[in-house]
Amino acid sequence: MKFKTNSLLAGAGAAACVLLLPALALAQAAAAPAAAPAAPKLDTGDTAWMLTSTALVLMMTIPGLALFYGGMVRKKNVLATVMQSFAVTCLISVLWLVVGYSLAFTSGSTIIGGLSRIFMAGLTLDGVHDLAKTIPETVFMCFQLTFAIITPALIAGAFAERMKFSAMMWFMAIWSLVVYAPIAHWVWGGGFLGDWGVLDFAGGTVVHINAGVAGLVCALVLGKRKGYGTENMAPFNLVYSVIGAALLWVGWFGFNAGSAVGASPNAGMAMAVTQFATAAAALAWMFAEWVTRGKPSVLGIISGAVAGLVAITPASGYVNPMGSLVIGLVAGLVCFWGATGLKKAMGYDDSLDAFGVHGIGGFVGAILTGVFAIEVIAGEGKKGLIDGNAGQVLTQLWGTLVCIAWCAIATFIILKIVDALIGLRVTTEEEIEGLDINLHGETIH
Fold first, then answer.
1. What are phi and psi of 386, to 5 degrees?
2. Which domains does the chain possess?
3. Residue 254: band (very low, low, confident or very high) from pLDDT cuts 50, 70, 90
């Protein structure tokens, strides 16, 4: 009997415990601190692709752009020209570490970033950036650095063969912080142009319009080269330029497909449309030159290829192959006109057609992005479909005009300041003899 009573008590106790379990669990949950948010999960595939893309984009400047530009100047200025690309790579890398990255890609205002990453403060081994949550922030930072390097390096094509090396270094340093970093923030880093809905997948506005407009201002402020229009200024070695253009083409897959910030279907489409637009633009320029001048030139076809690369850059994450084909064809024809007819009509000396190819090509690409865009990122992990429309074209136009205005005004002011302090241009004697021997004490044979 005692055993039976104990059994009944035990059974009642067990039932009570079962009934109390949900209440106890709720009480424990209320008393426990809120669970920490899950740490971002780094993806090794995305990281590997972005490491590769970073190397590809760096290759675009050194040796790609250095050879492309170096082959197009006269023999007496080859070393000075490749030196510009190499020195800019070093200079911008240090400035990016000090403050450039922070100004472009940290939260501050819609005008400029903050200072939370000054001297790379707070950059950790496994930290991520909100714009790239599957790769380490160190990789994202280095990828964006390669864009910050090539943009000012492109400007040098406009003032080739006549600017002081010291003036070039001061100009590039100030320009990268006053012009490039803010515009990168406006479009990509949480700024007002991104909020407006301006589409720039990989840098048509931030890189190419920016560099092209700055190049045009430089060409106008410095004036023409001595003997321009009367002396033979044919390229020294177009083989160098072909190799440089080929390196630019290959590296551009990192530029455009890398801007997907991961090994994704979007990266695959960006790679495909980059190839088609580049080929179409090269052929368009070649045939335009063939028809108007009687012969297709090597310089023409490689210039057309670069024009296509430039124009597809803002659109590469948003268009399909047929859209890219049209963008390439239009860019090849319009940039051919820009580098020949427009330059001749306006009478400026854009030595290596930085404005004719990058400024005009970037503008064409930015506007046509609004025409042919079919897919945009609508939020984290989501995609929205749009048809190219007048509203998006107008948004693209406003975005480009804002960037053009700021770039032109700021570039002009920076040039005037540098000119007042140390002078912009080499002497007539130094220019005639060549920049290689006078600025660097070296020559090629």
1. -135, 155
2. 44-440 (1.10.3430.10)
3. very high
